[in-house]
Design a protein that fits this description.
single chain, mainly alpha
Length: 92
């Protein structure tokens, strides 16, 4: 009963697992990938977190990029860094 209205029976659905497979286990992110993810998160906080805090975090995260980044991580870092630098330039 719902507000005086009687609802018809709902259908019962039976489910089961047909099978599963895994190509490889997820082992986590390396240091450069972690740095890119953290910088992406920081870029969403522009204007909410103190600019100096963001700059300090960028310097720290850049260490991981300099030491362990491959081509993909460097490219992603540059995209995000450009966004952040545009923000800083327009808010000086």
């Amino acid at each position: 009963m719902f507000k005086g209205i009687e609802w018809p029976c709902t259908a019962l659905i039976s489910v089961g697992r047909a099978g599963s497979s895994s190509l490889t286990s997820f082992l986590g992110f390396n240091r450069a990938q972690f740095s890119v993810i953290e910088l992406a998160v920081l870029s969403t906080r522009l204007g909410r977190i103190d600019d100096n805090k963001i700059k300090d975090e960028m310097k720290y995260l850049k260490i991981g990029i300099d030491k362990t980044a491959g081509k993909n991580e460097k490219e992603a870092w540059e995209w995000i860094e450009k966004k952040i630098n545009i923000y800083f330039e327009s808010n000086d």
